[in-house]
Design goal:
transmembrane; transmembrane helix; membrane; seven-stranded antiparallel beta sheet; 2 domains
Length: 382
């Protein structure tokens, strides 16, 4: 009888010990997960305040930590779906299809005289993390090319950025914001709903139909305002959707409202039969610099972005394009975080952290949040 009682006591004790060990291991893993999540999620402020695009290029080192301009801008590799990252910034534009852009004067006049309607389809690079392809004949390489890597009859502009993770550009008339990025199989990535690529298309408007981004921006309702743009790249976890496994998802928000949500595609655009063409995963590493306002022209006086002389804007003369609070996240932002960023607004001083006079603060007005339930939309997905 005593032996049975001792066995019962020992059994209860062993069960308690095992339960304690199990709970400790479980709790340790939970704490480890929280610690890993907090330590691997990074927010990098590229610049705070307002950057005017009438200035020269800004380059930020992302590889050499000893460089004074070094910023930690690399895709996250710890998430379940693989590499993912986000960019958030505020964009001000007061431009239209007649605004002078970074196209040099001779090309500007040639294009306007040859086909004025095409001029609005020139693009202005806002920023990109990547590298240009250098020319051996020392001819200046332009970073504001049309779609398709070939020269056009109207303007002899060469293909430009080969490495881009990502490249973000705005159309000259501010009607489109285009996002480009490399994937691990091909230098170009296209959205899943786009039409087959046709580089011989005569319409410049159709040459970007394959890209990620937003279009049909109502310039009259959004210009002279600071509109928040959020861009998210995220690999689709293989265990969530077998059809979309190893593909990337690109989401674009305008003033905290989701406008585009596309899965990347390759095979249906380039008609490649190789099985690897179905893969469009985000590149995990890119040692290139982050470049803002990269025009790289020989004659800077003909390349500065300017508003038309008679366009005085609100509150006095305003620059044609300005960007505020460009921030990088090494993870995919969620809707709650995006809402918080929009609610917080942006810093109303120059990017050099020099305070501006208080009497011009009222000229910095952010755009309204978009109501997607109404019929009157001011922006659409590509």
């Amino acid at each position: 009888m005593l032996n049975i009682f001792i066995q019962i006591i020992l059994s209860i004790f062993l069960i308690a010990v095992m339960a304690l060990i199990s709970y400790s291991v479980y709790n340790k893993e939970i704490l480890k997960g929280i610690k890993v999540s907090n330590s691997t999620r990074k927010i990098t402020s590229i610049f705070n305040g307002i950057f005017n695009f009438d200035r020269s290029i800004i380059e930020q080192e992302t590889q050499n930590k000893n460089d004074l301009t070094y910023l930690d801008i690399n895709p996250s590799i710890n998430q379940n779906g693989g590499a993912e990252y986000s960019y958030n910034f505020w964009l001000y534009f007061d431009i239209d299809n007649t605004t002078r852009t970074i196209i040099p004067k001779d090309k500007y006049n040639s294009l306007s005289l040859t086909n004025p309607s095409n001029f609005q389809y020139a693009y202005i690079n806002l920023f990109y993390k990547g590298d240009r392809v250098l020319k051996t004949d020392a001819t200046q390489y332009h970073t504001h090319n049309y779609e398709c890597n070939k020269m056009t009859d109207a303007v002899k502009l060469d293909p430009v950025v080969l490495i881009k993770n990502p490249l973000v550009k705005i159309r000259n008339d501010a009607r489109e914001i285009i996002i480009e990025y490399n994937n691990i199989n091909y230098p170009e990535t296209y959205n899943s709903t786009s039409m087959p690529l046709n580089c011989d298309e005569s319409s410049m408007a159709k040459r970007n139909i394959n890209k990620f981004g937003i279009k049909e921006i109502d310039v009259d309702k959004t210009k002279r305002l600071y509109n928040m743009i959020t861009i998210i790249f995220q690999e689709v976890p293989p265990n969530e959707n077998a059809i979309n496994s190893n593909k990337a998802n690109c989401r674009v928000y305008f003033n905290s409202t989701l406008i585009e949500d596309r899965v990347a595609n390759v095979s249906s655009i380039e008609n490649v039969k190789d099985s690897s063409s179905f893969k469009s995963r985000v590149m995990r590493t890119n040692s290139s610099k982050l470049r803002i306002n990269d025009y790289r022209l020989n004659n800077s006086s003909d390349s500065i972005i300017k508003a038309e002389p008679n366009d005085t804007g609100v509150g006095g003369r305003q620059d044609a394009i300005k960007m505020a609070d460009l921030t990088y996240f090494n993870y995919a932002l969620n809707q709650m975080e995006i809402n918080s960023l929009y609610k917080a607004g942006f810093n109303k001083y120059t990017a050099q952290l020099t305070e501006m006079p208080s009497d011009v603060y009222d000229t910095y007005t952010k755009g309204d949040k978009i109501d997607i339930t109404t019929d009157e939309r001011i922006v659409h997905p590509i």
